[in-house]
């Protein structure tokens, strides 16, 4: 760690603790599809922090902020979850000292608001896949970060310029930007922030009150990637009677990688870039000196995808059928 980095970090902490001695404002960013644990875990840590002084000071002031004050839904086991009415919109929210961004749908308004907070030197924390929102806002370019271990592959593919750190509870990207792993990791990151501001004894006091026995905020030991479930699928189809296409899907957690075999064209284990949007499915791969593409559609959960495969300018109808899973 360079002296410049250390100095910047200390200045950020001093500004946070000193300029807002009465209260430290913590803004929880929410959007449609916000994850409850990502909000609740960190909220509980900051809410339960009571200083061991003669006034038993509660140093944090908490509030929610969203694109508007329109009620929105959290996650809810495949259905709309609980309804939350945000305290503020981005346009009228009080200036925060700390920003917490959990997993959520996001959007351009969130990205612009995060850029402003970061530019103003506010402490920005992401929890779980909230790291995607920070990265999309450009806050992690060329820096280190982590996210939920199921989504490490997705993150690495979307943000190749971010140094992804695995098997940790949280990562400090710069003097005032942090990313946490999945769900309960947000509690560890928040306790870490409490420890940075008020000392480890105070953070332990907060953890004890919560009856939280996790030690990740002290050790930063995360979840081994190998604990993520691994699933395999094989999709088959033909563009000619003698030309079979085999698309292999390997999914670790929620991150999938794809390879394609076309034996008749001497293509084996070709890396394949797949994109999905609504019911549309497209993919591309190198075949010989060119690039072959497929564009088709299939309902969610479907066992067949029908579309057009184009190679060397020639279009072929192609239906890929799910041949096997969990190989």
UniProtKB/TrEMBL annotation:
| SUPFAM superfamilies registered for this protein in UniProt | Class I glutamine amidotransferase-like (SSF52317)
Query: Signal as a keyword?
Result: yes
Q: Which domain of life is it from?
A: Bacteria
List the Pfam families hit by this protein, alphabetically: DJ-1_PfpI
- Domain named DJ-1/PfpI is located at 25-195
- Signal peptide positions are 1-21
Which keywords label this protein? Signal
Q: Which ranges does the record mark as transmembrane?
A: none
Q: Does the keyword Ribonucleoprotein apply?
A: no
GO biological process: one example: regulation of DNA-templated transcription
**InterPro entries in the record, alphabetically?**
Class_I_gatase-like, DJ-1/PfpI, INH-QAR
Coiled coil regions in record: none
Query: What protein name does the entry list?
Result: DJ-1/PfpI domain-containing protein
């Amino acid at each position: 760690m360079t002296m410049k980095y250390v100095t910047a970090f200390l200045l950020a902490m001093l500004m946070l603790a000193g300029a807002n001695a009465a209260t430290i404002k913590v803004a929880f960013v929410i959007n449609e599809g916000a994850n409850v644990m990502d909000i609740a875990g960190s909220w509980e840590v900051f809410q339960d922090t009571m200083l061991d002084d003669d006034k038993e000071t509660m140093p944090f002031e908490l509030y929610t902020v969203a694109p508007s004050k329109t009620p929105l839904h959290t996650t809810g086991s495949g259905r709309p979850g609980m309804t939350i009415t945000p305290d503020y919109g981005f346009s009228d929210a009080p200036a925060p000292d700390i920003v917490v961004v959990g997993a959520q749908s996001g959007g351009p308004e969130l990205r612009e608001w995060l850029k402003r907070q970061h530019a103003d030197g506010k402490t920005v924390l992401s929890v779980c896949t909230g790291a995607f929102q920070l990265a999309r806002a450009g806050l992690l370019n060329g820096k280190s970060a982590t996210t939920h271990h199921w989504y490490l592959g997705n993150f690495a593919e979307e943000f190749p310029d971010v140094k992804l750190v695995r098997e940790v509870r949280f990562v400090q990207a710069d003097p005032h930007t942090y990313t946490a792993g999945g769900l309960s990791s947000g509690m560890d990151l928040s306790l870490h922030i409490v420890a940075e501001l008020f000392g480890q004894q105070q953070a332990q006091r907060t953890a004890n009150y919560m009856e939280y026995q996790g030690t990740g905020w002290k050790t930063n030991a995360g979840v081994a990637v190998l604990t993520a479930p691994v699933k395999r699928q094989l999709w088959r189809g033909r563009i000619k009677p003698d030309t079979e296409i085999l698309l292999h899907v390997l999914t670790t957690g929620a991150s999938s990688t794809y390879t394609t075999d076309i034996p008749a064209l001497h293509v084996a284990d070709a890396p394949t870039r797949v994109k999905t949007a609504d019911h549309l499915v497209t993919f591309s791969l190198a075949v010989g000196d060119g690039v072959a593409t497929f564009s088709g559609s299939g309902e969610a959960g479907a066992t067949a995808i029908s579309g057009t495969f184009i190679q060397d300018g020639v279009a072929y109808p192609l239906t890929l059928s799910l041949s096997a899973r969990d190989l």
